[in-house]
Design a protein that fits this description.
Pfam families: BPD_transp_2. 69% of the residues lie in helices and 7% in strands. By secondary structure, the chain is mostly helical.
Length: 343
Amino acid sequence: MDAIILQILNGLDKGSAYALIALGLTLIFGTLGVVNFAHGALFVIGAFCAVTLNRIFSISFETIDPTKVDFLGNPATIKTTYLEHWFGAGPAAWMTDWSVPLAILLAIPVMLLVGVIMERGLIKHFYKRPHADQILVTFGLAIVLQEIIKFFYGANPIQTAPPDVFIGTMDLGVWLGFEANAIAYPYWRMVYFLFSTVIIGGVFAFLQFTTFGMVVRAGMADRETVGLLGIDIDKRFTITFAIAATVAGLAGVMYTPITPPTYDIGVELLVLSFVVVVVGGMGSLPGAVLAGFLLGIVESFASMNEVKNILPGIDQIIVYLMAIIVILVRPRGLMGRKGVMED
């Protein structure tokens, strides 16, 4: 039982990333009708917002300390970060330690701006074009964005630590009545799951309880009628795209301590997220979230040694096998709407 609970927990943090990216993909497709293959790159941009802020906090300058000398007898030079110079040692250490959560404050305006530029500069010209054209142009954009990130940050993974208070594991087994250390789970993975839950809940609350969200949901059902009512649907499409980009970016920010980001991590997550969207049902926001967590848990169980010893390599293909089974049994996905992608 403890092994089952641990695998479910492992699946939840994977599923959180899948669900957040798939949520943005479905939001864009449902409102704009655009298949956005650049969405994975938005996740990467968010991740490198965290890396960038961490590097900014580490920028330092040298000063000479006449009270100390180096091994040659010369006055010693001391490196001091600008953060420490401006705010003091205590606040600077706290801000550096909490650089990943603080990167959310940087990522939100950056991702909103990136989303607006992408939608106004490129995506809007492909609303009425075939999906094949949309896939080609957005995939090309994703490659361009990846290469830009590679140019500035290199190709190697970049370690970004969580706050010290979240380093280590929590003993969930004791809370659930098991023996000590039976279910040890990393603190930050639990934080990521809770953060994802808050973001997903916030998106659904925004769509359900605000006037703007009502217009977006109406546009997902019938864009032409919404436009005929005199509503500036283009403006709302731009905002929707920016919100979807921000969701993907925030997912990337908080994921950096779990998997050190590289310039090409978005491609792998994008493919898996499109599988999630298809399994959940094209255009279905609840379906995207449900499928994200479901496939994350299934993938986690498939990665167990007991399973891989019986079926070697099953962890690499289980998500795609699940997609095949779902599509064969229910072609529209778990919660897909009639008529979506059927023309």
